[in-house]
Amino acid sequence: MTVNGAKALEVELLRLKEEERPRIVSDIATAREHGDLKENAEYHAAKEEQGFIEGRIQEIDSKLSRMQLIDVNQLNQDGRCVFGTTITLLNLSDDSEIIYQIVGEDESDIESGKISCHSPIAKALLGNEEGDEVTVKAPMGDILYEILEVQYV
Predict the structure, then answer these.
(1) Residue 4 — φ and ψ, nearest 5°?
(2) Average pLDDT, the chain
(3) Within 10 Å of residue 96's Cβ, how many Cβ atoms?
(4) Mean pLDDT of 123-139
(5) Is the pLDDT of residue 42 over 90?
(6) How confident is the model at residue 135 (pLDDT cuts 50, 70, 90)?
(7) Strand order in 86-91's β-sheet?
(8) Quick one: which of 114, 9, 119 has its CA closest to 61?
């Protein structure tokens, strides 16, 4: 996991523990005051939300305890595509440029240009360097890219 990915999980964990957990406890207490719990939809919804929040807290705690932290700035900056690097690619079929950062599964977000290290694009890029051409096996056919730049940021 990248440093930024770990920080994002820590921020989410803190928010869940310090804001969401106390809020849901208060919601449950308020719902209990309304009487019969068997038919109290507000109470059941609050308990269900509590279950989701506690599950997410456990999931994040587990991920943070098992993660291997990669600081991209500390990597050997030899121009190769490795975990954490940001890569500028040129699609050789339509001359469009795209920028991706190779991150862990928990951090991946294609809309913000963060792709999982297990994705077909990342697998094709890993180990290659600036100037190399790589073929990505995509569902709609092979895509040929040229690696224009590899950044360690």
Answers:
(1) -65, -40
(2) 91
(3) 9
(4) 93
(5) no
(6) very high
(7) 114-116, 96-103, 86-91, 141-151, 133-138
(8) 9
| Token duo for residue 24 | 């849901």
Task: Give the whole-angstrom CA distance, residue 145 versus residue 49.
Answer: 45
CATH code reported for the domain at 3-66: 1.10.287.180
Domain 72-151 falls under CATH 3.30.70.1290: no
Residue 43 Rama label (left phi>0; alpha psi -120 to 50; beta): alpha
The predicted pLDDT at position 140 comes to 85
Where are the CATH 3.10.50.30 domain residues in the chain?
72-151
Q: How many residues does the chain have?
A: 153
pTM given for the model = 0.77
Please say if the pLDDT value at position 38 is more than 80: no
Beta bridge partners of 144: 135
Burial 26-59 (b: 16+ CB within 10 A, else e): ebbeebeeeeeeeebeebeebeeebeebeeebee
**Mode of pairing for the β-strands spanning 96-103 and 114-116:** parallel
| Distance in angstroms between the alpha carbons of the first and the last residue of the chain | 14
Alpha carbon distances (Å) from 9 to 54, 56, 77, 96, 140: 15, 11, 27, 33, 34
